[in-house]
Amino acid sequence: MMNxxxxxxxxxxxxxxxxxxxxxxxxxxxxxxxxxxxxxxQLPTVHVTDSAEDxxxxxxxxxxxxxxxxxxxxxxxxxxxxxxxxxxxxxxxRMADIIGRTVGMTPLSATSYxxxxxxxxxxxxxxxxxxxxxxxxxxxxSTTTPYPANSWGYERVEVLRGPASIVYGTGTTGATxxxxxxxxxxxxxxxxxxxxxxxGTAKLGLGMGGALSDTLxxxxxxxxxxxxxxxDMARASGGKLMSTLRWxxxxxxxxxxxxxxxxxxxxxxxxxxxxxxxxxPELLGRNFxxxxxxxxxxxxxxxxRMLYEVNDWLSLSNELYHFKADRYWRNIEAxxxxxxxxxxxxxxxxxxxxxxxxxxxxxxxxxxxxAHQLAVGWEANRARFRYAGNSDSRxxxxxxxxxxxxxxxxxxxxxxxxxxxxxxxxxxxxxxxxLSDRWLLLAGLRRDLTDFSRNDLIGSGSFDKTLxxxxxxxxxxxxxxxQTSLYGQVSQGHDPVTNVLTLNLANRDFKLTTARQAEVGIxxxxxxxxxxxxxxLYRIEKKDIITRDPNNSQVSVQGGKQHSQGLELSAVTRLSxxxxxxxxxxxxxxxxxxxxxxxxxxxxxxxxxxxARNTANLWAHYTTHSDxxxxxxxxxxxxxxxxxxxNANTATSPxxxxxxAALSWRPGPRSTYRLTVRNLTDKVYTYxxxxxxxxxxxxxxxxxRVDLTAELAF
Length: 714
Known about the structure:
Elements: H1 9-12, H2 14-21, E1 79-83, H3 84-89, H4 95-100, E2 106-107, E3 118-120, E4 123-124, E5 129-133, E6 154-161, H5 165-168, E7 175-181, E8 189-197, E9 201-211, E10 216-227, E11 236-250, E12 253-265, E13 272-275, E14 278-279, E15 294-309, E16 314-338, E17 343-369, E18 372-389, E19 396-399, E20 415-434, E21 439-456, E22 463-481, E23 484-495, E24 513-526, E25 531-549, E26 552-574, E27 579-594, E28 614-626, E29 629-640, E30 643-644, E31 652-653, E32 656-668, E33 671-678, E34 686-691, E35 696-700, E36 705-713
């Protein structure tokens, strides 16, 4: 239902402040290019583009899949690219939705929480699916990655599937999504986004950029949003400011300064109780958290970049960065419903804070030597993490008839508990060797070394540890023609058994897990650039996951194994000047090969939780022109197959298909008005679910929602 169509004063208030800042040289970036031929691309003006041929595709260069800057068509790996116009046409603004529509990627976190957690290729969560911004990953200190939550200020998202440790380091076995920012240009840019919608939703985005002098350019993006949400206590709000200042005194030298801030207050909602993995309809919409709960997420980021093209065959780049994240939670997060007794049990009375700082530097050289394009680099970073929390492990059971909202009554105080520090050095080298006009060999090697230290402020759990991982990739591409490539690759990556920054005595002796993949595929453009399609077959085997000692199920050991294999298909085609189709499909066969749980239960042969065997996305766009301007009608479907909520595969989350629609009107080249309806049939479905002794609950997908936006450029 549509209600509270307002644009709050708090958002409108962002406008004068952001416009005033435009007079100052504040910043925003993109990837450093390896040569003069790859100078910074022009920022696509909002909605001027009218054809699929102008969008990023197989012929475009990418640094998300390789540091050598290969075109996607030549890359012996599976990589998706989604640009700003594509996600605007679909009515997507949450980064989780944009990434989740790429092949095989399923969002797992609640719509209201905006965390970037996914399942893909049989692997789930932030320890196996990485998130990067312009190629840099921020250390994760929990199971959530809340930044970047929305798409404002970004020009495209690229998703590299399969083990990506060769490019991004540990924690990337399933895939890595790299979010690419808009960059300064000499062209004057002024962009405004105004939006309102169901549940009191409102948003305002301001973007501007241009030249300050012959050598200085800038880019500035500000964004604010708020919503009342569709559940009890689901009000959320937030905002961010992204900036880039670029100084380019010569064609060979470029310096950039970036500074960002963001402040989010997500919905205080942790799902709804389930029975055997299924949502209980009569409980949907009720919030079982405490009524004085709180969530605050603040991020600060500063970067300095340099690119120097020494000559035609050598370029040097350096990036120095500092990130700071302050996060606070006070919630009751675990729920279990007893339908026979008509009671709700609440557990996990958690009050905690995370204070994370990360400082790093990446130095890289790119060399062109005959048929070789080499990238050699060294990245060093130090992350400091401070944790404070309570220790309330009780469970409180009350009749379902009682009010669902209760006050915070934990007897345990939040106190500082430990600090950790992780210093990592990464050394990497890649070589793209053009063997002939039809053959290309890509080889890469990376070594990660982390010195970790934990200082317990309560108890005696302090220790030091060194973790090391080696990643490599060997891939071969054969061009059947200028538009068609066959490829094959073998690669190795690594994941931590748990978050590196929160290692404790229980997992002190564990090493990184190892994942190896074999993949073959085909990529093809057809119809004189009117369409393209890709297909990939893969198998990933991961060893040294945590299991239990066969002789003592109370003792955790490494030695477990799991594997996944599957097929991925994606295609986009312009059938006529009016019709365009986009779609993808993924088939995943994922199993535990060796896994024993507490109590001795053998889960070998079971499918990991929240992994669907089948996923698919489809969009159809119809475009026509009239005297009033350009009209486009779009219809899309998201389909996710049945999943399990537990390792035993006894609690089942049903599969679902959700339909979305959008209608846009562009009266001129610089303005677009868009009406979007999400979940047309108001279907009840599950993003992710958990079932264990303490909790049986699910994050439900959002119900029907209507949004109206205006996208303007000046």
